[in-house]
Design a protein that fits this description.
GO terms for molecular function: kinase activity. The chain is α/β, with parallel strands linked by helices and 431 residues long. The protein is built from 16 helices and 13 strands. The strands form two sheets. The chain has an eight-stranded mixed β-sheet with strand order 1-2-3-6-5-4-7-8, with helices on both faces. It has a five-stranded parallel β-sheet with strand order 10-11-9-12-13, sandwiched between helices. Helix 7 links the parallel strand 7 and strand 8 (217-219). It binds adenosine-5'-triphosphate.
Length: 431
């Protein structure tokens, strides 16, 4: 089935598939550079690169001297904050962002803070190699300052504004018996979404989003190092769940979700990947013993059709939980319903592509343990699956042979902790 072919592979993604990033492009594979170095710490003067973190070693981890784990943490972005931006440069030269920076960092250490640098560095291998040489050279200039650095080298869970580097940091501190005091800690970064009177704006708002996701006080470098007034005019771009309007869970039409009296029928779902179709099935149809038909699980459309046929033979109703994006795909099931003389209802999940992509990132990277322990582990579905759904989508129509089309709206379900995670900024690239 064309519509679900992209999502169908998603439940069985291999590690290779999972390296696809948003935009459907092949993500940077982990360069052998990382795997070679992973074994031994690399010592450069007082600085050493430790074993990279994460299942795919995509989070570089280094320390200058022996940084103490303290409950108050002063966190800094690197490029455009501690040093002048030289992003992607292939040489290891650098300059302080402003001359005040080293003394300010030293003072924080003396005042009882842990100093930690948090950086996005999804660079090509040559630039990354230069960058890895640059950090020890910065450390040499800060030789008496113990600090820790974490750097996300891929477009994954570690990349700001995703909170992976924070999760690792809290874990490292916990191993030292230290709970980070969020209210006494702060983050300084230049990617603040600032809008300027001349019409220009910051290249992104990623640092401010990261602080907001975690609940940390945020400062720009100008505010923190130079004492300039707070720059209040900022705009964070991209999808945030606060933009969703509240809607009823489904359109009131002539039938309830479950038919009364219950008869064998086909319920066919239509909607972007990760828009909550399976969750909806589990919540409403599973308890009513509807058979779950899913091409990701069964492997092919003929197998789905066979399974539907068998369910109907046994007097059961079933749900086709695929993306079913176009009329040609849906026709296979409409024809089967006609042949078996049972009704077929279409449930169209109307949430946007932005919401679906957001849920995809949430599901792959940011579900709280209470949800993750109840759902199968799912890799990130490539962005291409969303754009191809959108490109080929045909609005379902009664004339296709449905007895009813019900619109299913997104309604958040979950407790405060689930909402906290789901409401974070989820983004792998762009603004
Ligand atoms: N109503 C909801 N409230 C909160 N979270 C939800 C809700 N529905 C789904 N989710 C979460 O969104 C993510 C995607 O949901 P789900 O896996 O059900 O989507 P799907 O449409 O079946 O995806 P696919 O087509 O890729 O199989 C999951 O992590 C799920 O926990």
């Amino acid at each position: 089935m064309a519509s679900s072919s992209s999502s169908s592979s998603s439940k069985k993604r291999t590690a290779k598939d999972a390296e696809l990033d948003s935009g459907g492009k092949a993500a940077k594979k982990i360069h052998p550079f990382f795997t070679r170095e992973a074994k031994e710490p690399e010592q450069h003067g007082t600085f050493k690169w430790l074993k990279p973190l994460g299942p795919k070693s995509t989070c570089l981890h280094g320390v200058n001297l022996e940084p103490p784990s303290r409950s108050k943490v002063a966190l800094f972005d690197l490029d455009g904050t501690i040093i002048k931006t030289s992003f992607g440069s292939k040489d290891a030269t650098w300059e302080w962002w402003r001359l005040q920076v080293p003394a300010a960092l030293k003072k924080l250490h003396d005042d009882g803070y842990s100093v930690v640098i948090i950086s996005n560095q999804a660079l090509k291998a040559v630039a990354l190699k230069a960058w890895k040489e640059k950090v020890p050279s910065i450390a040499t200039s800060l030789s008496s300052l113990p600090f820790r650095i974490l750097a996300a080298t891929a477009k994954d869970y570690y990349r700001k504004p995703m909170i992976g580097m924070w999760t690792e940091l809290t874990r490292i501190f916990k191993e030292d018996g230290v709970e980070i005091d969020k209210s006494g800690s702060f983050f300084v970064g230049d990617a603040a979404g600032r809008q300027y009177p001349n019409g220009k704006s910051d290249f992104s708002g990623t640092d401010r989003k990261w602080a907001s996701n975690i609940g940390l006080t945020f400062h720009t470098p100008e505010e923190y190092f130079l004492g300039l007034p707070v720059h209040a005019n900022f705009k964070l771009e991209g999808f945030h769940v606060s933009s969703l309007t509240e809607l009823p869970p489904y359109t009131p039409t002539h039938t309830a979700l479950l038919l009364d009296p219950r008869i064998p029928e086909i319920v066919l779902f239509v909607g972007f990947p990760s828009l909550g179709k399976t969750s909806f099935y589990n919540r409403y149809f599973k308890p009513a013993d509807y058979v779950h038909i899913n091409q990701d699980i069964l492997g092919s459309r003929p197998k789905c059709i066979k399974a539907v046929d068998e369910a109907l033979n046994n007097g059961l109703a079933c749900v086709i939980d695929n993306t079913n994006r176009d009329a040609a795909t849906r026709k296979h099931y409409v024809d089967l319903a006609r042949k078996r003389k049972v009704p077929i209802r279409c449930f169209h999940f109307t949430g946007s592509m932005e919401l679906a992509w957001h849920n995809n990132l949430y599901r792959a990277f940011n579900m709280p343990p209470s949800v993750a322990s109840n759902e199968p582990k799912r890799e990130l579905v490539p962005y291409l699956a969303y754009t191809s759904y959108k490109g080929a989508f045909q609005e379902p129509e009664l004339s296709e042979g449905f007895s009813e089309i019900k619109k299913i709206n997104w309604v958040f379900e979950g407790d405060e902790e689930v909402r906290r995670h789901w409401s974070m900024w989820h983004q792998l690239e762009g603004k």
